[in-house]
């Protein structure tokens, strides 16, 4: 699961960059054709503006939903860990001590 986080972050960052470039391109197209009064150009501009707005709205709602799901998942995992520690205090102390010994040995080797 830890290996997925950097990949997910990179994918999210790439998606943001791609969408930013797409948005810029469409906005440039809309601005460049703003003075053209031909009806087909005006119709294309209107459709591009409409699709851009729809895409932005859809992505914003999806991003909010994904954020909510991730937050809920993390909260659930924290609660499960907390319950485990309370239900198994000696096991938790043993695990903590073992991790401390391993970290101490690794630091001691330097």
TrEMBL record:
Compartment list: Cell inner membrane
Region (Disordered): 1-21
Record-level GO cellular component terms: plasma membrane
Signal sequence residues: none
Entries under SUPFAM superfamilies matching the protein: Apolipoprotein A-I
One Pfam family matching this protein: DUF883_C
Membrane topology reported for the UniProt record: Single-pass membrane protein
Family annotation (PANTHER family): INNER MEMBRANE PROTEIN, INNER MEMBRANE PROTEIN-RELATED
Protein name, UniProt field: ElaB/YqjD/DUF883 family membrane-anchored ribosome-binding protein
Species per Swiss-Prot/TrEMBL record: Halomonas campaniensis
């Amino acid at each position: 699961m830890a290996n997925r986080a950097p990949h997910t972050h990179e994918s999210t960052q790439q998606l943001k960059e791609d969408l930013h470039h797409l948005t810029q391109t469409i906005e440039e197209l809309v601005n460049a054709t703003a003075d053209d009064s031909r009806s087909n150009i005006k119709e294309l501009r209107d459709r591009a503006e409409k699709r851009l707005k729809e895409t932005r709205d859809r992505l914003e709602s999806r991003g909010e939903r994904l954020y909510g799901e991730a937050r809920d998942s993390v909260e659930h995992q924290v609660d499960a860990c907390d319950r485990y520690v309370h239900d198994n205090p000696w096991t938790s102390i043993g695990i903590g001590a073992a991790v401390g010994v391993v970290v101490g040995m690794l630091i001691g080797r330097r």
